[in-house]
Amino acid sequence: MNCLLVAINAKYIHTSLSVRYLAGYSNQVNQQKTQIAEFTINHRPELILEELFRQKPDLLCFSTYLWNVDLVLEIAENFKKVSPSTTIVLGGPEVSFDAKELLEAHPFLDGVLMGEGEASFADLVSKWSQNADFSNVKGFTFTDKNGVKSTPLPPLFDMDLLPFPYGEEELSSGKILYYESSRGCPFNCQYCLSSLDKKVRFRRVDLVLGDLQRFLDAKVKQVKFVDRTFNCKKSHAMAIWTYLAAHDNGVTNFHFELSADLLDEEMLDFLSTVRKGLFQFEIGIQSTNPKTIAAIDRRTDLPELFSIIRRINAPGNIHQHLDLIAGLPYEGLESFERSFNDVYFLAPQQLQLGFLKVLKGSGLHRDRKKYGLVYRSKAPYEILETPWLPFADALKLKEVEEMVELYLNSGRFSHVLEQLMEDFDSPFQFFLQLGEFYHQKGYHLAAHGREEYYTILKEFYEEGGHQLDGQLIQRTRLDNLYHERPRKLPDWAKPDLVQPRREELIAFFTPQRVAQYLPGYEGMDPKEILKQVHVERFAHPQPRTLLFRYDRRDLLGRALAVEIPL
Asked: Which of the two residues, 469 and 168, has the higher pLDDT score?
């Protein structure tokens, strides 16, 4: 008998934590072993169907989320046609709140596992392998001759029983790896499903630290904690943070979702001391409109929150991602502009502008008629319009979102944007007008090379009546050189100073200077060094010569640049 657990991820670089926990725990307690098959939403449905069929599963289980539910249903339906004897079961947050309706609408499905799945899935595999009755598996919805039936949800799972989810091959894959040290959330945000699980549970700290050491030993590039509010228990968070700082390997980055207003002086003082790039924080602000914040049941002291975010930013050692949600109650275009500008001026490394998803089971789904929320009927149930945000204005925010991703969050235009912003009323107005220009010109209909995005910015700036000056040109070169050697730059972005000749550079790289400016390159021939670095003179904002080192980059991919006396 063959049991296969399927994950269909949003991106290739992602790994599915849920299927690894399900399979890992089941394989610990059952003789019947579960295999994992992993794909992305970019794979053709035909290819996924073919690959699954070749593995000849008798029990086929899909991990189901917003981003893959339609694809999962298409594949499951066709799989049942070519393999009618295979038992097909779905699980995951996207199917946990309407399992009965799902089975009635899709008769090719044999069952749905609801809620936390480790214990239920292991029990399902055990009973299935013994040809036993499924009807007493906890949290299971299924169809029998009398119709659709559901069993009560299982008790909350003991996180200390979770196995370490990754093997050696996965640890060395270069992909983003996910980890969970707690479940549940103490807050009640009305747009979120995590608020439904009020009982916050923690994995024992010594077990967590042992798991984290395996990531550190493997020098994994990035580990993302999926804990909904990582710092809701200070002792738990500090034990993990202090361990990671003490055992830092100089490579691995750890990402946490935080409630910043829970950080106290001790925590902030400690965070100011950690290595640059060790930690990355995601902080949900969502809106700065007090009426909106009240409607979504957040308890936020905005001045205090902003003060803490600035404190985190001040040492320059922690990347912050700040989140906004468009389409919330009482937030129209004008209100969202204020929220956007408030967050922009906090200077996050990424400003993540998302659109409300009216999730089944959430408070806003329950109150959708009360607030007049109009949203897409199919996953991801994204907002279309509200009484405060008509669809035409939502489209404007879509354009802003696109420009923020291209020009702000990419990190490739930071020096150029700094100057351009001076000629606009606000950051929001800059991105709004840029988005309108971008779409009016039809640039959104085609892909563009990296250098073309600089030219589009130049065209937008000049059509707005502004004059391109030497400083802006040099900022363009600077932004580009932070990311790659100058193989391809726009024709208009020429250097305004005579650049060092090759002979000058070779003479500059004496052993003493290599040790001072390029540690790690000691003993290398200067001609070889020049193949790996770039040196350029700039006149703006002040005369200087920069050495770009491309083997050392920050989390936004920017090369290490140092000023040299040349």
From this structure: 168
What is the C-alpha to C-alpha distance for residues 404 and 478, in angstroms, rounded to an integer?
Answer: 20
CA atoms within 13 A on the CB side of 40: 7
For position 354, which CATH number holds?
A: 3.80.30.20
* Single-letter amino acid code for the residue at 290: P
Residue 173 DSSP SS3:
coil
Tokens at 411, concatenated = 């990190």
Residues 6 or more apart in contact with residue 357 via CB below 8 angstroms:
66, 191, 375, 380, 381, 382, 383
Residues 351, 331: Cα–Cα separation, whole Å: 18
Alpha carbon distance 10, 42 (integer Å)? 8
SS3 content of the chain, % helix, strand, coil (to 5): 40, 20, 40
Peptide bond into 186 cis (omega under 30): no
Per-residue pLDDT at 491: 83
Rounded to 5°, the CA angle 18-22-24 comes to: 110
Residues 121-150 have pLDDT tens digits of 999 999 998 888 888 899 999 988 888 999
Task: State pLDDT tens for residues 406-449.
Answer: 999 999 999 999 999 999 999 999 999 999 999 999 999 999 98
Q: How many domains does the chain have?
A: 4
> Are 371 and 228 found together in one domain?
yes
- In this structure, what token pair is assigned to residue 207? 């077990």
Secondary structure (DSSP) of 208-250? HHHHHHHHHHHT-SEEEE--TTGGGSHHHHHHHHHHHHHT--S
> Is 377 inside any structural domain?
yes
Instruction: Provide the edge-to-edge strand list for the sheet that holds 533-538.
Output: 533-538, 544-553, 559-563
Alpha helices in 278-352 (DSSP H): 290-295, 302-313, 333-344
What CATH number should be reported for the domain holding residue 103? 3.40.50.280
CA max distance for the chain:
87
Among candidate residues 465, 411, 409, 410, the one with its CA nearest the CA of residue 433: 465
Q: pLDDT (tens digit, 9 = 90+) per residue, 289-333?
A: 999 999 999 988 999 999 999 999 999 999 999 999 999 999 999
Whether 256 and 114 share a structural domain: no
Q: Please write the tens of the pLDDT for every residue from 471-527.
A: 888 899 999 999 988 877 788 888 877 888 999 999 999 999 999 999 999 999 999
Interior angle at CA 447, CA 444 and CA 453, nearest 5? 80
In terms of domains, do 260 and 366 share one? yes
Task: Please report which confidence band the pLDDT of residue 545 belongs to, taking 50, 70 and 90 as the band edges.
Answer: very high
Secondary structure of residue 200 in the 3-state scheme: coil
d(CA 93, CA 197): 12
Same domain? For 429 and 525 the reply is: no
CB 561 within 8 A of CB 547: yes
Contact 6, 16 (CB under 8 A): no
| Bridge-based pairing state of the strands 544-553 and 559-563 | antiparallel
